[in-house]
Amino acid sequence: MLTMRFFRMIEGRGLVFLGIIALVALLVPFCNLYLAPGNPFHVSNGTVVLLGKYLCYAMFAVALDLVWGYCGILSLGHGAFFALGGYAMGMYLMRQIGTRGVYAHPVLPDFMVFLNYKELPLTWWGFQHFPYAMLMVVLVPGLLAFVFGWLAFRSRVTGVYLSIMTQALTYALWLSFFRNDMGFGGNNGLTDFKDILGHNVQAQGTRAGLFIITCIALALTFIIARMIVASTYGKVLVAIRDGESRTRFLGYRVEHHKLLVWVVSAMMAGVAGALYVPQVGIINPSEFHPANSIEAVVWVALGGRGTLVGAALGAVVVNWLKTVFTTGWLAPYWLFALGGLFVLVTLAMPKGLIGVWEDIRARLANRKAIADAKASGGGSPVARSPDPQVPR
Amino acid sequence: MSAVTQSILYLDGVSVSFDGFKALRSLSLTLQPGEMRAIIGPNGAGKTTMMDVITGKTKADEGDVLFDKGSIDLSRFDEAAIAELGIGRKFQKPTVFESHSVADNVLLALKGDRSPFSALFGARNRIATETIDRYLGIVHLLDHRARLAGALSHGQKQWLEIAMLLAQDPKLLLIDEPVAGMTDAETDVTAELLKDIARDHSVVVVEHDMGFVRALGCRVTCLHEGSVLAEGSIDAVAGNERVIEVYLGR
Ligand SMILES: Nc1ncnc2c1ncn2[C@@H]1O[C@H](COP(=O)(O)OP(=O)(O)OP(=O)(O)O)[C@@H](O)[C@H]1O
Ligand SMILES: [Mg+2]
Question: What is the rounded CA–CA span in Å between residue A323 and residue B36?
């Protein structure tokens, strides 16, 4: 009964998605750890890190799709929440280094010693404790989103103006985190991590573990997002997206509804950032760069806005292309490729990859229906031109 | 003062101007509980603006806008709060949620807790199909419940919006041009529907279709340039010299 309800909520597409994640979570670490490097199915350490990175981006894209695809809030600054989550994790990892740093200071990270800090700034207190750091991973992005959203939604800033404000938010953070006196490592950011919960972050086993945890986190993020959009609350969000003022006249406090999804999305982005940092081994201010947030919007648009699965797919596909393009002789053309991709999507496939897939399926189903009608000899086949039914 | 304390809706001396243009000039109008009132008047007379003022979309520059026996000053509330007080509205241009199914449109409109948490985990997820179907039945859209609202015809969208209005169970219904774009047959059905609704609701209907207004058989107010030009029975208003001059034509 409960499982049936769960399946219905997740939808067929979502079940396929969860199935793929489960498969990847099992196969990738297995092929990395237990198959010899000579084996054709061996997955290299570098590939594990790369795939883990893609999955963090996929999680981030799901979070972005929740606010943009379903509630119409085009955030051009969502990277800020991702980066803040990343910094919270980075601070935990820095404090684990302890005396193993270059300056061997028991409390202060190297960059603080270098900058003549005498004691640990207040902002860093408690980060040696993993649970506290994990709390901050969701609380800091959540709190920033709450304050920003409360001000913006209450004064009814929408559309382009809101997008510009989100962009300004991440831009301001980008500039601040560059400054040494912010106390977050300035330009260089946080790096040279040693362990996470007592395990060496560089070790093959730790990496495989982080990969599996990322898969689980992505699956959970997706399930939570699906629960939100499948509930009546999700329907209110779509109503706001399509007719904000109409929704108000029905008695809904639009600002409260927007605020909730906005904060949840920011927290999801924070978790994605936190998982990203130990895998790539560094977090620096470039993660706040406005271009990152814009790129994430391209992933969602390419995969299919308002589908969740599409957002994740778009993130993986674009980043895979990026890896291909930026590592070979194609490197100088990456930005052109990205721009071209965006133009292609907006002109040729407004519903993204998922939309293309669905068109193909509908066409095949239609052809089959015609063939069946012919086979049964039932006169002239009527091509089914269904009234658009609501996707369940 | 008794006019106020007996009214469901009381407008007195309401003025609104947009960049110096006076859309409403000292408009006064009183509606009794349970009354149905038709509002007519030429384009730009301020009929829609009057509804905007009542529902909180536009703030009046001056004048009183009182609801429920004068006990509530509507100018102090925003759109969502006014809707919660029990004033529902159908817009001039039909505005349904096009990417939702017909049934979901009614679901969202249904009276009840409107907090995000109710919609996420609470009562709004446990609304019975029969409740929704009751409203769809009233407007003859039962067979269309699973269709996307965007795929409905113009007239059907108008009906869906009326169903949404009923689902809110408001005390006062403001209905802006319900039969615009409807066939004659649909118009007749709508007139019957509104008369039915008016049995237990207070209703204000704005309409240009004089045949329809006559079919409603209620008091009529004619607006012109932001204030009341004439008020009374349909025959009295339709026979009024000034009304003929500015609106009905000779
Ligand atoms: N938001 C606004 N800004 C500027 N002018 C407005 C605004 N809303 C209405 N007006 C003007 O106020 C006047 C009254 O408009 P209103 O829509 O109330 O007329 P109406 O009686 O509903 O007309 P119709 O029968 O065409 O619907 C019009 O001249 C209109 O242009
Ligand atoms: Mg009007």
Answer: 68
